[in-house]
Known about the structure:
Layout: H1 2-25, E1 38-43, H2 62-79, E2 83-86, H3 109-120, E3 124-131, E4 140-144, E5 156-159, E6 169-172, H4 177-196, E7 202-208, H5 212-215, E8 221-228, H6 232-238, H7 241-258, E9 270-276, E10 279-285, E11 295-302, E12 311-314, E13 316-317, E14 323-328, E15 337-346, E16 352-362, E17 374-380, E18 383-389, E19 399-406, E20 415-418, E21 420-421, E22 427-432, E23 441-450, E24 456-466, E25 475-481, E26 484-490, E27 500-507, E28 516-519, E29 521-522, E30 528-533, E31 542-551, E32 557-567, E33 576-582, E34 585-591, E35 601-608, E36 617-620, E37 622-623, E38 629-634, E39 643-652, E40 658-668, E41 677-683, E42 686-692, E43 700-709, E44 718-721, E45 723-724, E46 730-735, E47 744-754, E48 759-769, H8 784-793, H9 800-804, H10 809-823, H11 827-838, H12 868-872, H13 876-894, H14 932-940
Parallel strand pairs: 1-2, 1-3, 3-8, 4-7
Antiparallel strand pairs: 4-8, 5-6, 9-10, 10-14, 11-12, 11-15, 13-14, 15-16, 17-18, 18-22, 19-20, 19-23, 21-22, 23-24, 25-26, 26-30, 27-28, 27-31, 29-30, 31-32, 33-34, 34-38, 35-36, 35-39, 37-38, 39-40, 41-42, 42-46, 43-44, 43-47, 45-46, 47-48
Helix pairs in contact: 2-7, 4-7, 8-10, 10-11, 10-13, 11-14
Amino acid sequence: xxxxxxxxxxxxxxxxxxxxxxxxxxxxxxxxxxxxxxxxxxxxxxxxxxxxxxxxxxxxxxxxxxxxxxxxxxxxxxxxxxxxxxxxxxxxxxxxxxxxxxxxxxxxxxxxxxxxxxxxxxxxxxxxxxxxxxxxxxxxxxxxxxxxxxxxxxxxxxxxxxxxxxxxxxxxxxxxxxxxxxxxxxxxxxxxxxxxxxxxxxxxxxxxxxxxxxxxxxxxxxxxxxxxxxxxxxxxxxxxxxxxxxxxxxxxxxxxxxxxxxxxxxxxxxxxxxxxxxxxxxxxxxxxxxxxxxxxxxxxxxxxxxxxxxxxxxxxxxxxxxxxxxxxxxxxxxxxxxxxxxxxxxxxxxxxxxxxxxxxxxxxxxxxxxxxxxxxxxxxxxxxxxxxxxxxxxxxxxxxxxxxxxxxxxxxxxxxxxxxxxxxxxxxxxxxxxxxxxxxxxxxxxxxxxxxxxxxxxxxxxxxxxxxxxxxxxxxxxxxxxxxxxxxxxxxxxxxxxxxxxxxxxxxxxxxxxxxxxxxxxxxxxxxxxxxxxxxxxxxxxxxxxxxxxxxxxxxxxxxxxxxxxxxxxxxxxxxxxxxxxxxxxxxxxxxxxxxxxxxxxxxxxxxxxxxxxxxxxxxxxxxxxxxxxxxxxxxxxxxxxxxxxxxxxxxxxxxxxxxxxxxxxxxxxxxxxxxxxxxxxxxxxxxxxxxxxxxxxxxxxxxxxxxxxxxxxxxxxxxxxxxxxxxxxxxxxxxxxxxxxxxxxxxxxxxxxxxxxxxxxxxxxxxxxxxxxxxxxxxxxxxxxxxxxxxxxxxxxxxxxxxxxxxxxxxxxxxxxxxxxxxxxxxxxxxxxxxxxxxxxxxxxxxxxxxxxxxxxxxxxxxxxxxxxxxxxxxxxxxxxxxxxxxxxxxxxxxxxxxxxxxxxxxxxxxxxxxxxxxxxxxxxxxxxxxxxxxxxxxxxx
Length: 943
């Protein structure tokens, strides 16, 4: 009966767990006063640009997991009253709002998202990621940043070891309030995940680090690594919609706790039950559900048979607000007696709360049970006959089953038999003990009847004793001769025949690690014997245990006796183990080896004290002419570690047995890599970094140059690998364009990576860069025809007054190219500026077409500026001089070289020299308009 109950309990438990999981997978609206709380959810990486991690076996991508989970998080938050949104558009978005209208440029991914979130005054940012690592790595973890430079710059310090590339992390010893709230949320997430998520385990890791997306916010922010894409089993679970919703629910629960949402428990004023015939009605009144209500469950079971009939019933809401469920006892096998009823409420987070419990009594008159007047068992030879008589089956009878087992070995031989109806109405079955391992002794016999409803009822039990003659032996003995043991079994009596005698033997050294089973051979006197060699038992000395088993014609194995013997084995030894150091080499010598059982090899394991045994290596020593064994090793094979080295020695004999021969240690001094100088020079937009005078006793794997501008912290940090030069120095050339074209101070560190992968700081320097994107000075790259074509395409009418002076459009363009060439100014810049300043020679402002002033020189509100026609003539010469004055003024701004021609620039001033090296720098210098450069460049693009 106990077996059947256990099976039913397993099924019931499975039903319970299924219901619990299904409940967790669903989510419902919660009345949280959170409408004013704005939350940005960022799915990490960017579809079509950066997939993140990808599982090599099934191709599941991190970016898809991030997007799917983020969509569920935003949906769940919005259904619970939060103003939640995705940070940017993603595939599969069912219409949820997004912070950005288009995906951000990947080079400015985190900056764009964080700046926009800061701008709208968001209350929280959550970044969704999934991890990658070893194939067995598993679990979730959380990251928060104490460093928020947009809010607080006090107490900043740097900490190594948080980034795998060796870079230092910026942390804040006095974190601002938003950082402390970030940490609080990370802890809440970890607690809720570990308590309520079953498909992915906790790594119990909450990490303080300056991740780009979390450090740039001016509100609390947490980065979630929700599991490992590299784990084949875990990634499939993470891709499951139900599991993703389960995690979204726990993120909601954590955010509710952070913002103080209602966490009161669900309650009920009463839970009652009543019986009417074969029906039980359960009712729960006065349900209060502060966190929402998904469902009311009422689990019911009878006391008979434990919880083997457990069923969970969903209650239905009634008109008066109560919840009720009606249970039919036929669904509980018509069990009579006491019934247990519990009541659970499930809230919007999937949390189960016990609301009450009660009991009712169902009378036996509801349904009569099946009975039997007797269950008996009789023995005849190797057969047992079980008989069930006087069966009364009010609900019909479909079968009688008889489970039978011997007491030998517990229920290892349990078998269920179907009894056959006899002419007198009884049921009978005969079994053979050969189907029960030929066990002798007591046999247990139970009887169960199955009615028309499929209900199984225990009818009774009995037992029977079967006498089985077993194999015996008068003696089991053993003797030792050298390295051999002979075991002997005598006086065997085998009533059921004998097919073989088996002798298991093992030494007491290391338990039964050397256990071997040997077949014994029958001798002429009827005894059985076997001789074994201890080399097959690791040449172990000491006590050997010897057992004997006989197997009969029924294939039954019987223990017939045991003995033990003592074997004396002389172990391998060595008189000395020594080691010496020469530079980066260690030589180990083993002398005076004595090997009674032969010598196959000498093994020498060596490791440094640095980081435990992470560098442990086993070396094979070589025999020397004097009979000693020696091996020389290089510390480069031990990560160039300095300090104490541990050396052990083991000898292996001809049987393969390994013996410890001794140990020693030596100390090795090492020097880390260094450099005499780290220097940087700047030419235009390029920074050349040179690391000189490198000394590397432990070898050079590479030289790394992390570089960043001091604008916006380390948002543009890039690690460059320097190249070795012929003089032994290492050099790298860095384009400021790779760093957003930032102007100002660039910070440059140099790290040497030794042969073992260790990073060693070699020095640092800085360089000042004035980034020039669109230079004013330089070679002209447009043709006169292109400039003419631009003007004609503009739709503007070339001034007739210039034609009358003999300067048509083609001549006008040639004059600009000519004047620019003389002073080294790019004609495309000057011409585009003239077109902007004059409105394609239409003028119309303070400056008149007749002034030949093509750049507004001297013109301010209401003042027409310099008139070249008055000073230099109202003719072609005056017009050309006006062009010259414009070009010379551009040169005054863009370089410090002398003019090639006589100065005609009325606004020339040495104080403004080098004020604008590029078109971009004309904005705010030449003109107050901050879009001035953009407008000039827009014209240039049309050439």
